[in-house]
Task: structure prediction
Amino acid sequence: MNKGLDADWFICPTCSQQSSEPSHVREGFCPLCNDFTGGLGVTGELIMGQTAVYFHLSTEQLTSADRSHHISGPRQTAMFICRELTDLSFPEIGILFNRDHSTVMHGVRKIEKLVLQYARVRNHVAVISHRVTAQASLHETHEGVAYVR
Result:
């Protein structure tokens, strides 16, 4: 499930703890907070929507041609989370964000490095990932629930 980081590492999006335990990497389960990071109902569109809300942007801005830092950083974060929480390929994520697959690869690699270096970036990824998984689980039982805040 965890495709964004090196195959030897797993970062829990809820508590931001890192693990190299093979079963955690393979299954995306965090024993510290008992959270499973994968989940039915997690979509690229849901990730894009939650990322836009978190960074006070629109989904149109995330898919626009704008390359300014305040847009490209959140876009790359959303692409990274797409790789972490879905089975979407680089080309599929590229289609979602109106980007070439190589641009997606670059963005995912960049966020991978930043997550390891900066607690602030780790926190962004953790909070958005938690909101996405919470929204996906709520949506499975209650259609039409508003974004989790």
Remarks:
- Confidence is low (pLDDT under 50) at residues 1-7, 22-28, 34-39, 141-149.
- Residues 119-141 form the longest helix (23 residues).
